Amino acid sequence: MRTAICPGSFDPITNGHLDVIERAANLFDEVVVVVMTNYRKKGSMTFTESERAELIKKAVADIPNVRVDTYDGLLADYARDHDICFAVKGLRAVSDFEDEFQQAIGNRHLNNNLETVFIASRAENMFLSSSMVRQIGELGGDISLFVPSVIHEDVKNRLLRKD
To answer: Which domain, by its residues, includes 100?
Structure first.
């Protein structure tokens, strides 16, 4: 079975993330969406790890070969511990590529069996980021076009509460 990890902080999951997950699910037998800790963002996360995992579970509920996990460590270690050889990363722009390429090389040094597969964003999602969704939502703007409909109310209500 060919399994891939689709890692990220997903604070919150966006339609862009969901598109990459759906496309990865068409390429692999199983996709594990792993909610990771991003230490560059730690302390500024809006949703807890468990909240992010629950939102993702709702968003991917109709995709039978996708499951959700959480991990507070290195992606290379998660892959090794779970005998997974592929990581799928979405790319929105050249700036994403530079960062993701460096991470792929680093992960490859830490786990020689881990290959990174890049999936380019669809044009309609190239601008979309979790931070943009948070900013718009916290200011009361309409985020319905940016997050999966099954979690829209949850995300909107949480962002408006700002707790």
So the answer is: 3-127
Length of the chain counted residue by residue: 163
Residues 107, 87: contact at Cβ < 8 Å?
A: yes
Number of domains, the chain? 1
Say which of 17, 89, 134, 158 is annotated catalytic: 17
Out of 2, 41, 42, 82, the active site residue is: 41
Q: What is the CATH number of the domain that holds 109?
A: 3.40.50.620
92 catalytically annotated: yes
Please report whether residue 135 resides in a domain: no
| Cα 89 to Cα 125: distance, rounded to the nearest angstrom | 14
Is residue 132, in this structure, part of any structural domain at all?
no
Interval 52-90: pLDDT, tens: 999 999 999 999 999 999 999 999 999 999 999 999 999
Is 82 among the catalytic positions? Answer: no
In a domain, 145, yes or no: no
Considering the entire predicted model, what is its pTM? 0.93
Q: How far apart are CA 114 and CA 130, in angstroms?
A: 26
Residue 144 a catalytic site member: no
- Whether 130 is catalytic is yes
Question: Of these residues, 52, 92, 156, 158, which one is catalytic?
Answer: 92
